[in-house]
Specification:
Layout: E1 15-19, E2 45-53, E3 59-64
Antiparallel strand pairs: 1-2, 2-3
Length: 67
């Protein structure tokens, strides 16, 4: 989870969930028209999902940043 500036957040704080893996395609399913801004400069995909991480590292999705 990261804050609005892309900085990491402590456990229990809500922020944007970002993911990164090899072969990640930066577009929405069946919608390749708007992929600008989905990837950060260091390769993380900005999901637009709000999430929290507990002290064990488990992630819980709690909402959406985008509609």
């Amino acid at each position: 989870m990261v804050d609005q500036d892309g900085g990491p957040l402590a456990a229990g704080v809500t922020g944007e969930c970002q993911i990164r893996r090899r072969g990640l395609v930066p577009h929405y399913w069946k919608d390749k028209s708007d992929s600008q801004g989905l990837l950060t400069s260091d390769g993380w995909l900005r999901t637009g999902d709000l999430a929290t991480r507990n002290r064990l590292g488990l992630i819980r999705l709690v909402g959406r940043m985008k509609t």
